[in-house]
Amino acid sequence: MDVWSDLVLDGTHPKVCLRGSRIFMDCEYEAYLRHACQFIYKILPGEAGIYLFAQMTYESPTRVQLHRKLWNALQGIDFADAEKGAEHVYKTGELHHFSSLMKIKSAVLTC
Fold first, then answer.
1. Which of 75, 76, 65, 52 is nearest to 98 (CA)?
2. Exposed end of the chain (fewer CB within 10 Å): N or C?
3. What span, in angstroms and rounded, lies between the C-alpha atoms of 40 and 52?
4. Contact of 20 with 3, CB cutoff 8 Å
5. Is 84 exposed, middle or buried (0-12, 13-18, 19+ CB in 10 A)?
6. Is 29 in the same domain as 62?
7. Same domain, 57 and 111
8. What pLDDT does residue 53 have?
9. Calpha distance 36→4 (Å, rounded)
10. Which pLDDT does position 76 carry in this prediction?
11. DSSP assignment of 35-91
């Protein structure tokens, strides 16, 4: 699992991105969330907007994977208090990419 952050100055509003890759197992996902939570609480004020960008890629997906898309594929993760964005699917060669955004309330984050 790789985790890194970026700071981008966009006019007068700085944007901070925490990125993770190669998160495949539940323990890696939980470790990433802990790291992200600690990172967020260090740099952001209490009522900042927190967004999760999620993307899954399948090579020659099955019919079940095409039906479940992104949010349904992430079973076992509690997103009850989050606002899920529309799921977008695009294809590059044999790869199908499913992506979306989710707005997370900072009150539901626990470290």
1. 65
2. C
3. 12
4. yes
5. middle
6. no
7. yes
8. 82
9. 10
10. 61
11. HHHHHHHHHS-TT--EEEEEEEEEES--HHHHHHTTGGGSTTS--TTSEEPPPEEEE
Q: Letter for the amino acid at 40?
A: I
Q: Provide the pLDDT for residue 1.
A: 65
The two tokens of residue 16 are: 């901070």
Number of domains in the chain: 2
Amino acid at 78: D
* Positions in the chain whose pLDDT score sits under 70: 1, 4, 6, 13-14, 44-49, 75-79, 105-111
Task: List Cβ neighbours of 52 (8 Å cut-off, separation of 6 or more).
Answer: 82, 101, 102, 104
Q: How far is Cα 70 from Cα 53, in angstroms, rounded to an integer?
A: 11
Residues 38 and 90 in one domain: no
Range of the domain at 10: 1-43
Cα separation of 5 and 106, whole Å? 19
